[in-house]
Design goal:
12 helices; seven-stranded mixed β-sheet; alpha/beta; flat; 352 residues; Aspartate Aminotransferase, domain 2
């Protein structure tokens, strides 16, 4: 009889996990991205799993991203945080000397790309002190990554203390919790955790499945942080501009701008004049003039739309003719700029 005593490496799948997976291996095996019922049932199961995982660690479902395991989650978290820091001009990463190779090898890769990596030593009990992390933090630090529980000696690091220091300094904090999730209580809010990695096969789940927790707005909370006093009035004003800008973008995406709406309606009325139409030149002149008249009669916004259409080539001036979408153009009439514009308006109003 064999006795297995290495659950730190991997665990046997539980009967509950097998029972939960079997229907989706045998019956509801559709692609979750499909629109038919079998695929949608698979998608519903994935979303339900996402909600359960989020509830266990105190997160929101949309903060959970499924991966192929803990190593991929570690790589994604560290590389993303490093890229964010580099955009902000910060290239210092802090870790400890007893991390998993998924973390250590990724940090070694980043060192080759110009990042400065500090590997702090642990005490004789295997614990990394929060004071050591605080002493290593500087203005160039973009990420601190410390595992929750060690996979060889089982020590549990003071994650909440380290996370609180990072949050206070505006530094992203990642923890490799592969050995912790499913064994001890994990609370990302209490631990001030921005990113967390986990793997199912460490707590009697299937191999090849893991997840990465990434706190919402973690990147936004990092970008723009700086030391020194902050201007409350200026920050509130910028926040107001951001809110108004987001609202305006939503309205433009949903309804379009007044200029686009006016121009689009006119084009819809005269589809025959769009593109390199085989219509005779006389027909093109009449249609183009009619379109521009519609735009001009719409008031100030219509006049702006007509000017924009001429400027961007939707209404091109060819000799004394205006028409849609013809790629070629002939020299503008001689004379000053004001005279040319006046001739354009006259040609549009009275095509001959």
């Amino acid at each position: 009889m064999n006795i297995y005593a290495d659950n730190a490496a991997t665990t046997k799948m539980s009967k509950a996990a097998i029972a939960a997976m079997t229907p989706y291996l045998e019956e509801y095996y559709g692609n979750p991205s499909s629109l038919y019922s079998m695929g949608q049932k698979a998608k519903d199961a994935i979303e339900e799993a996402r909600r359960k995982i989020a509830r266990v660690i105190g997160a929101e479902p949309r903060e959970i991203t499924f991966t192929s395991g803990g190593s991929e989650a570690d790589n994604q978290a560290i590389l993303s945080a490093a890229a964010t820091g580099k955009r902000a001009g910060k290239t210092h990463i802090i870790s400890d000397a007893i991390e998993h190779h998924a973390v250590l090898n990724t940090l070694k890769k980043l060192e080759g790309e110009g990042f400065r990596v500090t590997r702090l030593p642990v005490g004789e009990n295997g614990i990394l002190s929060a004071e050591a992390v605080e002493a290593a933090l500087d203005d160039d630090t973009c990420l601190v990554t410390v595992m929750t529980a060690n996979n060889e000696i089982g020590t549990i690091q003071p994650i909440s203390q380290i996370g609180a220091l990072c949050r206070k300094r505006g530094v992203l904090f990642h923890t490799d919790a592969v050995q912790a999730v499913g064994h001890i209580k994990v609370d990302v809010a209490a631990g001030y955790t921005d990113m967390l990695s986990a793997s199912a096969h460490k707590f009697h789940g299937p191999k090849g499945v893991g997840f990465l927790y990434a706190r919402r707005r973690a990147e936004k909370s990092y970008r723009g942080r700086r030391s020194g006093a902050r201007k409350t009035r200026g920050d509130r004003k910028r926040a107001g501009h951001r809110r108004n800008g987001r609202r305006a973008r939503r309205i433009r995406r949903r309804h379009g701008t007044p200029r686009r709406r006016a121009y689009g309606e006119a084009r819809q009325t005269h589809r025959g004049a769009v593109g390199n139409s085989p219509l005779r030149a006389e027909r093109r002149r009449e249609n183009a003039a009619s379109v521009e008249r519609q735009l001009l009669f719409r008031g100030r916004r219509g006049r702006i739309a007509a000017a924009s259409a001429r400027r961007h080539g939707h209404l091109r001036f060819v000799g004394i003719r205006l028409h849609f979408g013809i790629a070629r153009s002939e020299p503008r009439p001689s004379g000053d700029r004001q005279t040319s514009r006046r001739r354009t308006r006259l040609a549009a109003a009275d095509p001959r």
